[in-house]
Write a structure and sequence with these properties.
Elements: E1 8-19, E2 24-36, H1 45-59, E3 64-67, H2 72-77, E4 81-92, E5 107-110, H3 116-125, E6 131-133, H4 137-143, E7 150-156, E8 159-168, E9 171-181, H5 184-197, E10 202-208, H6 213-221, E11 225-236
Parallel strand pairs: 2-3, 9-10
Antiparallel strand pairs: 1-2, 1-6, 3-11, 4-10, 4-11, 5-7, 7-8, 8-9
The structure holds coenzyme A (COA).
The site of coenzyme A (COA) has 16 residues, from strand 2, helix 1 and helix 2.
Length: 257
């Protein structure tokens, strides 16, 4: 403010959106750490800061801003709208109907050292969806160091066949926010293993709504609860006629801020 006091804060993180073939479909800015000092709230500081942040984003040729928040009303006032769809599937601690971890013909691992081959294999196992954020192996390696993140893996004959990431700092506790597998049954056996190891009555699996239909119906069929939600909030910075269609965008847990 005019007295040189820090009143509001927000981060802008430019990222690329890619399609199934890894082609760039535009640059967007992720916005995070949005906060105004409690003593200074309600005076228009955040409105001004985010408007400034938009100008910076436009100068960087970013086509939209994306963020995650429960404060829908606040962001709607500032021109944000919902984008994308995701499913929240609940998996109970015990469920006799799903493939059991006990009869899995391979080995499980939790955390510990990951080889570069493992990290590359994990990225390759992630479901291929219409639009997501580009992520390099280097970025992934960095993201995997976030505290309180559990990395569950399943191997068959030494080959990684499924992985699940649960928790991310204070965020996504008990949420399987990123995953990948060769076969949906390997994923379900790994979910069963994770459920047996963690102190939660149920775990929630985040699923892109655009997931391949037979995977989606198997996962929905074996879940105990099902909810569909908007994926994130977006503010477009370009004219309507010039916009990419981001309605099928899904951002994996580690990439969201
Ligand atoms: C939400 C927050 C960032 C707003 O900051 P702020 O500087 O008080 O916001 P502003 O004064 O610029 O408000 C802009 C407009 O949004 C409205 N608004 C502010 N907080 C709101 C809320 N929680 N819900 C709905 N509208 C809200 C204001 O009334 C104002 O509307 P107006 O221009 O029509 O009068 C601030 O309350 C905060 O830091 N909260 C705690 C942390 C948080 O929740 N961060 C967001 C995480 S994504």
């Amino acid at each position: 403010n005019h007295n040189n006091r820090l009143c509001s804060h927000a981060n802008l993180w430019p990222r690329s959106i890619i399609d199934r073939q890894n082609r760039q479909k535009g640059r967007v800015g992720l916005v995070g750490n949005v906060a105004t000092d409690p003593d200074m709230q309600g005076r228009g500081h955040m409105r001004e800061l985010l408007s400034n942040l938009e100008d910076i984003a436009v100068r960087q040729n970013l086509s939209a801003l994306i963020l995650w928040s429960d404060l829908d009303q606040f962001y709607h006032k500032l021109g944000y709208e919902s984008v994308g769809q995701e499913l929240h599937l609940g998996f109970a601690k015990d469920d006799k109907n799903r493939p059991s971890s006990k009869s899995f013909l391979g080995q499980f691992a939790l955390n510990g050292e990951l080889s570069e081959d493992d990290r590359k294999a994990m990225l390759a196992l992630r479901p291929n969806i219409p639009l997501t954020l580009e992520r390099s192996v280097e970025e992934f390696t960095q993201q995997l160091t976030i505290p309180w993140l559990d990395c569950f893996r399943a191997y068959k004959n030494g080959e990684l066949v499924a992985y699940l990431l649960i928790g991310k700092g204070y965020d996504m506790v008990g949420v399987m926010h990123e995953w990948g597998a060769k076969d949906v049954n390997d994923l379900l056996a790994l979910i069963d293993y994770a459920a047996s190891k963690l102190p939660f009555e149920s775990l929630m699996l985040l699923v892109p709504d655009q997931l391949e239909l037979n995977w989606k119906s198997t996962l929905v069929g074996l879940s105990e609860s099902y909810e569909k939600h908007p994926m994130a909030l977006i503010k477009y910075l370009t004219q309507k006629q010039k916009r990419e269609d981001y309605s099928s965008l899904f951002v994996w847990g580690l990439d969201s801020i």
